[in-house]
Amino acid sequence: MDLVDVVAVATASLTLPITFLAAWWARRSGRQSADATVVSGVNQAHGSVAAARVQTRGELELRQQAALADASAAFLQASDALARTVEQLPDVVPEERSVQLAAHGMAVETALGPLELLAQPKLLRHAEALRKYCRTLEGLALDRAVLRSAVRALEAGWCPLNAEICDNDHHSAAFVAWQFLMEWPDREDEERWTDRGLLEYCLQESHCMTESEIAGVLAVVDRVPAAWSRMLGGLVRDPLLERFTALRAPFIEAARSAQPLVPPAESDGSRAWPSAAVGVATPMAASEPSVPA
């Protein structure tokens, strides 16, 4: 056998293994490619699921904050309405005062409910403090209205020139009765007991109030509420409502910080959400006043 024959035999003997090896390698490469494709698909699916979960959590957080914004605005509106009612109650006829006051007081209690479910502890503490003071306002409002309406009526009955030297009996009686009311809580019990009859006489002689109104004033006079000075206030200051304002401000600040992602409400109550997936109009529970988001 010459060299050519040897080479031919060797080549023939190696052809089959090489062919087999090439086929095996091609099959192995195909499987790896298929496995890589499957793994890539699985990773993409996992990524899509994770992204969907993040988006869902984001949407849920936005909706929760929107609900909290609406609940905060509703509570603030109810509280402000009660404060306005307390402020305006002296100008309301006595027979209607209790009804108006009770309706607004109940509205504050009702509006706190959603906040108890949605609000964080800090915001809830400020809401409960404001609600507690609203109860105080409601408890003092009727006596405050009686005293303030009486003081205004007596001031209107003063002498238009000089109340201290006026010789008109009605004008003088109005001025003396006014002085009694302004100084009443500072008097000793014995002084109040002695001067009570004179106060009643001056109220009647002033011709500034009806008999039922005078009876209402005397009922408050006999009880001498501890908050007398705060209810009367002064020419400019109104201590009761100043305290309400002082408690209102931190509630608004806490409400704003609790809802940083909520877009402002439009005039129709809808919100301009940042994505179409969250573009659902959320009704604003209160329009004026409201918690700016």
Automatic annotation (TrEMBL):
The chain crosses the membrane at residues 6-26. It comes from the Bacteria. Keywords: Membrane, Transmembrane, Transmembrane helix. This is Secreted protein.
